Amino acid sequence: MKKLDISNSGHYAYASICCITVGTLFPNVWNEDFNSQYVNNLCQHLNLNDRIKPVMITLATGQSTQSVNPYVTLLLEEPNLAGKTILVIQDMVLLAVNEGEYDARQRVLIREVASILNVPFELVEMYEYSLVKYLSQGVGSQSEKGLKETARRNKISKVKRYAAIGFATVAGGTLIGLTGGLAAPFIGIGVGTILGGASAVALGSTAGAAIVGSIFGVAGAGLTGYKMNKRVGQVEEFGFQSMMPYEVIEHQLHIAIAITGWLNDEDPESITKPWQSLAVSREQYALRYETKYLIELGQALDYILSIAVTVATQEALKYTVLSGLLSAVAWPAALLSIASVIDNPWSVCCRRSSEVGKQLAHVLLTKQHGKRPVTLVGFSLGARVIFYCLREMVEIGGGEGIIQDAVILGAPVTDSKKQWEKCSTIVAGRIVNGYCKADWLLRFLYRTLSMSTGVAGLVPVNCERVTNIDLSTIVSGHREYSDKLPVILRFIGLNTREVEVGEIASIMKKSNSMTPSECTCNPMHEQINISIRPSKSDMCLSSIKHPK
Fold first, then answer.
1. What single DSSP character describes residue 386?
2. Do 243 and 286 contact (CB within 8 A), yes or no?
3. What is the sign, positive or negative, of the torsion defined by CA atoms of 228, 231, 232, 236?
């Protein structure tokens, strides 16, 4: 692969920025092998002098106190990078996938360096998308009907890319300035034009086929093709359902898996419905597991809530409805008398969700999704699935570089510092604990489990690498996580699709404590954007950097 056409000092600055960032993001105690291998590959790729390599290794261990700022200044002075720092990011992506595997740590590094160089990550994602298209050209054989369908989809994809770039230019303001006019060729054939002839040839059909075959591996038609061959422990049902609005799944260099905590009905779409606003990747899946028990839990939650409201009214609580339950020394007798209605389905689902988490860990460790980074997002028991998945991956070993980010909302799991530190070591990027102090229902449900520690869904977790986000201004109880996901996801900094005006109005009506600080119409989609003003104590997902 041809190296970037900049001076030797430019290559040194490029390498220094990457190595300093690697040392900051990935503590050497957990990632020593990765850090060392990355330095070797980068130095070889940039043809750096052998005497420079030890310096880069020092930077990558996190032992240096150097800042990236002087190297960024030096890099920006390169004539061939004037207004086109995205070329550095493109080079990093190509280096990352060149061996047929896209390590989650590499993508997190690319995301951070893109931020340092003021390159919008949306543009990086569009580049990844076009790169997959380019590498996939000529891979496999198609019928005449298949070729026509591919041509139709490619045409639609070009239109979508044009619209996306046009919108980003308006919304971002500086996008075209940053790309130095690269948006125009990006709309056309895309990667070949952007990279230049030499790099495009280096990634020709043979190399492209090898890379695509390795990265996407046994995923075949996507995770929807995965089938659990036999019952695993207590798990009776386990599979994946595509969340994309079309039948044909387009492979991406990064995927997302969303996991719900309960179901409201038997409609197959109820698994994906809460996640309609999620837009972390163009290839997203919802985990389909133990639906029979999750439906029973959903019905029990509705029933216990209706009884609780009656109890609260009868006992004439002098606070906001149900809030008095939080400070009660003992739960109201009337509520405890019907506790069996919820305790059984809750305990069953808790046991099964932990087993489902372990099964998910084995799916990811065996690379059923290919060799690509994965973002996990879940609420309630879905968050519990993620927690046990991460824990299992750590205990088995060999799972580094698979999980990019993990977003855990309202989790009925321990807040043990030791357990969360263990889980955080397997996550390359950000691990988020979204909690609600006023979630009386979670407190009530969790009372029958071990109370030797606190509950992560109720309190912040005391772990340095965990981002704690208080959702009390958005949700007032456990049952609201499902309904208010569009607002929650945006509040913590995840990419979301535009939410319909009717949906936003409904969500805002239910929330008494949240006020939109901005509301602007988007004529392209005839929908609405909404920005929520977080409290000073809240932290946005996109602003978090890992400590050394």
1. H
2. yes
3. positive
Helix, strand or coil, per DSSP, at residue 517: strand
Side-by-side strand order, sheet with 431-435 = 238-242, 284-289, 255-259, 374-379, 403-409, 431-435, 466-470
Please report how many Cα atoms fall inside a 13 Å half-sphere around the Cα of residue 412, on the Cβ side: 26
Type and span of the H or E element at 251 = none
For tokens 């972390």, the residue is 280
Nearest CA to 119 out of 91, 96, 88, 94 is that of 88
283/79 Cα distance (integer angstroms): 37
Contact (Cβ atoms closer than 8 angstroms) between residue 228 and residue 238: yes
Instruction: Give the Cα separation of 93 and 128 in Å (integer).
Output: 8
Please check whether residue 399 is in contact with residue 370, taking contact to mean a CB–CB distance below 8 angstroms: no
Measured torsion, CA atoms of residues 442, 443, 446, 450, in degrees rounded to the nearest 10: 150
Per-residue pLDDT of the chain (548 residues; tens, 9 = 90+): 667 889 999 999 999 999 999 999 998 777 889 999 999 999 999 999 999 999 999 999 988 889 999 999 999 999 999 889 999 999 999 999 988 999 999 999 999 999 999 999 999 999 998 888 877 765 444 445 544 555 555 555 544 444 443 333 333 333 333 333 333 333 333 444 444 443 444 555 556 677 877 888 755 556 887 877 666 677 999 999 999 765 556 789 999 999 999 998 888 889 999 999 999 999 999 999 999 999 999 999 988 887 776 666 555 443 444 555 444 445 767 677 777 778 889 999 999 999 999 999 999 999 999 999 999 999 999 999 999 999 999 999 999 999 999 999 999 999 999 999 999 999 999 999 999 998 988 988 887 655 557 899 999 999 999 999 999 999 988 999 999 999 999 999 999 987 543 444 444 444 433 333 333 222 222 222 323 233 333 333 333 344 33
Q: Alpha carbon of 178 to those of 173, 454, 468, 514: distances in Å?
A: 10, 47, 33, 35
| Amino acid symbol at 363 | V
Burial code (b: 16+ CB inside 10 Å, e: under 16) for 210-230 equals: ebbebbbbebeebbbebeeee
Radius of gyration of the chain (CA): 24
Tell me phi and psi for residue 288, to 5 degrees. Answer: -100, 110
The residue behind tokens 């020092």 is 58
Q: Tally the residues of the chain.
A: 548
